[in-house]
Amino acid sequence: MSSKSKSKKSLVDPTQLKPFGNKDSVLQVIIETPKSSRNKYAFDPDQEIFSLKKVLPAGMAFPYDFGFLPRTMADDGDPIDVLVLMDEPAFPGCLLLARLIGVIEGEQLEGKKRIRNDRLVAIAQANHMYANIKRLEDLPRNFLKELEDFSLTTIASKASSTSYLAARAWPPRAP
């Protein structure tokens, strides 16, 4: 071993990355939980690692990749959630460039306080299946309903009451 001490350097803290790519219209999403997983992972900033947060009940799995937008803070105290549509699952900690197509607005009741818990919906730049989807309403209605139902179910698992508010396209249509 060398007498010089080498400093150990861990991976970059993904919460400190910029929320936007080189173009302001491109989101940088950090994946926490991959599509088809029952395991819900979350980044633990104190230990600087992704850890298992919970396991979904039998028969439930994440229908799409689920992540967050770095350097943001939602009303629930966590970074803004993002559901990413893409061909194949990513992995925890993977950085995806994605374009925003809409938001599923949700609300949860914790104690007596109502807290917004929205989910951005984005399309991964590197994909084939969703390449022609430009807005939320380009998705089939039943597909959108499944996204809304899943969002409500996952919010409900940590709050005393949840409600679906709306699904809104991005960018909004001109009046």
- What is the N-to-C succession of helices and strands? EEEEEEEEHE
Largest sheet data: 5 strands, mixed, barrel
Distance between the termini: 69 Å
Low-pLDDT residue intervals, each spanning 5 or more residues? none
Write the SSE topology.
Elements: E1 26-33, E2 39-44, E3 49-55, E4 65-69, E5 80-85, E6 95-110, E7 113-116, E8 119-124, H1 141-156, E9 161-169
Parallel strand pairs: 5-8
Antiparallel strand pairs: 1-4, 1-6, 2-3, 4-5, 6-7, 6-8, 6-9
Note down, in words, how this protein is organized.
By secondary structure, this protein is mainly β. Helices cover 9% and strands 38% of the residues. It has a single domain (14-168), classed as Alpha-Beta Complex (Inorganic Pyrophosphatase), CATH 3.90.80.10. It has one helix at residues 141-156; strands at residues 26-33, 39-44, 49-55, 65-69, 80-85, 95-110, 113-116, 119-124, 161-169. The strands form 2 sheets. Strands 1-4-5-8-6 form a 5-stranded mixed barrel. It is globular. 30% of the residues are buried.
Structural descriptors:
175 residues, mainly beta, Inorganic Pyrophosphatase, five-stranded mixed beta barrel, two-stranded antiparallel sheet, 1 helix, 9 strands, 38% strand, globular
Question: What would a concise description of this structure say?
Answer:
This protein has 175 residues and is mainly beta. It has one helix at residues 141-156, and strands spanning 26-33, 39-44, 49-55, 65-69, 80-85, 95-110, 113-116, 119-124, 161-169.
